[in-house]
Give the backbone structure.
Amino acid sequence: MFVVVSLVLVLIPGVGAKLLGARRWISVGPIFFQPSEPAKFGLILYLAKLMSKKEASILYFVPLAIISALVMLEPDLGTTLIIVLAGAVQIFVSEINLLHFTAVGILGGLATLLLTVTSSYRKERLLTFFEQISDPLGRSYHIRQILLALGSGGLFGVGLGASRQKYLFLPEAGTDSIFAIIAEEVGFIGAFLLISLLGFYVIKAIIIAKNAPDKFSSFLALGIAAWIGIQVILNIGSMTALVPLTGVPLPFISYGGSSLVMIMFATGILLNISKYTIYARTKK
């Protein structure tokens, strides 16, 4: 309930703070709170609770649709994709009817396409993905600066703190584009190590889900694994021009209190599930 209320409040002028053309934050004095971040965990938690008590049903998509629609109204397509895909992973493993899952998936894909082509800035991002060499000082400026940062890093990087692209060349250098700065400073080797660590986190979370002591814990751990994994893929994929540019933070790395707090909270939940799994095995 808190998640839904906060997502509604952020859309109300005077309550939600409008920054960079979007209403994604609630301002409480000097503190800015982003409701879409706890919405990710809140939906995962709610779906896990539903799946642990009821048989697989197409009704699982109802809370997923409500939360996604509210986040999309901000607007925030990147976060919406994370929420939809993470929720879809949970629903898929709940043994739902594949025909129902496929039908909803097709409708979701068509809705995403419609939202993309009917929005000028999203349409420009999609066109930029296919035409990265056109308009270097306009719509493709961001991605070209990202590629310059990656290319400048080479194998071992230019050195910690020595990035040049972070000095007003690369937009959002401390948040969405932080991976490009890291790759520039520590090179391919350092970037590969970072990706390996994030990949290890996701794999470990999947293992915890597989060995969880009950259904609720299993679905919850899997949802967290899907959330972090999908967010990593979207961020790094957009920073390496493998997917259209998407404004989502890199877990554990990007600047942003709301995102970091919720990811650390989710990590604590994973550790708790892991602890009880070990305890259950010990008793056997």
Summary: The chain has ten helices and three strands.
